[in-house]
Amino acid sequence: MRYALGVQYDGKKYCGWQRQNHSPSIQEALEKALSKVADEPIEVICAGRTDTGVNATNQIVHFDTTKTRKDVAWTLGVNTNLPSDIATTWVKQVPEEFHARFSATSRRYRYVIFNTPLRPAILNGGLCFIHDKLDEKLMHQAAQALVGTHDFTSFRTVHCQAPSPIRTMEFINVHRIQDYVIIDVKGNAFLHHMIRNIAGSLIRVGKKQETVAWMHEVLTAKNRCLAGMTAAAGGLYFVDVTYPETFDLPSKPLGPLFLPDEFS
Q1: Active site residues
Q2: What average pLDDT score do residues 124-129 get?
Q3: Residues 6+ apart with CB under 8 A from 164
């Protein structure tokens, strides 16, 4: 049997999604908990691998098992065996043709900036703190240069192993809710550090260190050295995955918890 599972996590203590020999990972912790409930080894495939320190509110995984368990075992039972900063949110049996990664048609992230002169104490590990006043309207205008299908070489790390830098950005919106500036991004797939590099560049525009037109110039230059610094990992959240409606997967609020699904 194949199951799809919704997972959320606070990534600050982990080396990212993918299992590593040298550091704890989300994948390792989840597989251990699932294997204990199933009483057999379980391997999971995720919709999109997240980097060190990155969070998720709606990560989707799938796994195969020969064991029959009630749904509550795959959720509450697995949660009992997970550390407190990782949790399952739903489970659904799916057909064998479902694949958490390859069946996905788009992925969505939110980058959350706390923008005040003084640093926060609450959620300080789950936010990017910028004390200089940001102009979110200029950031939004600049971000529109990235919508569509482009070569995103300027916004990927030099260590990125993707065979092609071509990606399609469905939308990228920048909103402010009081002291929070949120960069909301949806695309077919993303390169290594791509969103954090875009966020770092938009922050420069928001500080008025660069013009709105500068984002298009950086994009077309295809040169990582021209873009802004990589923004902090803690502000990034994997919030949604889109699949064909035939799979009928559960829908959950995008989050993070203190943000509404959509912004005014």
Answers
A1: 51
A2: 91
A3: none
